[in-house]
Amino acid sequence: MIHIIFGAAAAGSLKQGLKRPVMISFWDIFSIGPVWKLHEEAGVEFRLEWMKKVTSGLYDDYPDYQKRFRKSVEKVRGIPAGEHVTIWTAENAHEQTGLRYVMYLLKDKDIDISVINTTSAHQALFDTPKVRYTLRHTGEIIPEKLLEIYNRGPSVLLTDHDRERLEQEWLAQSESKERLRVWRNSDVREVPENDLDPFFIKYAKRLHQEEGKQTFFPSARLIGEIIGHVDQHTGDAFLEYRLKQLIGEGVFEYEGNLENMRFYHIRLKQSHDE
User: Which string of DSSP letters, residue by residue, matches 223-259?
Assistant: First the structure.
């Protein structure tokens, strides 16, 4: 059995929960960045160049990140005939995009493929009438619960029709050069990269109201508010990238050093705080 999972946190939890599984992990967040023709070399280069620019604060050693991504792709392509693969995914743009990408990489392979939907499995096993969880991505699940999902939760063995459908959905998705995908109405939607920008203004206004005056506050505090309240999984590096774009557009002003999220403070300009 080979497990394929998306995200560093999810991979860490699965590794602890299943005790050294045979695993292929993608550390990227597939809800951000272009996925245009990512199944081809030109598409890989196109994405990696964008990620280099946007996630410089996330990946301290870009060459290692680049090597890791290519190695994960090679491992998926190298899965031999006769294997059984389990793909872990949740109901978000990140993991659903990753699912479709991997399905295309596995195109025409004579292997069995099962999918575990951690969102529905988590709800079935752990929700109660009094306590209901809002799960944004698999990385939020602790190792012990992932193990229980694996042992008790439903997994779906994909039919040839299922596989062909996901492969075609990938081909359609990979025609877009948009840099942001969101999960809306139970589907992945390609949107402009500024789609979430209104939340920066909304939560900045809230922080100013809490302070009672138009003071500078840490940029990380605003990004934390958005991560905590917005029901999309994009990662903090993308949100900081968009914050810097808004600073450049004059929506926010800052003091400090923009090289690192910890080194600068921000506030809404007066014209945007009304």
Answer: HHHHHHH-S----HHHHHHHHHHHHHTTSEEEEE-TT
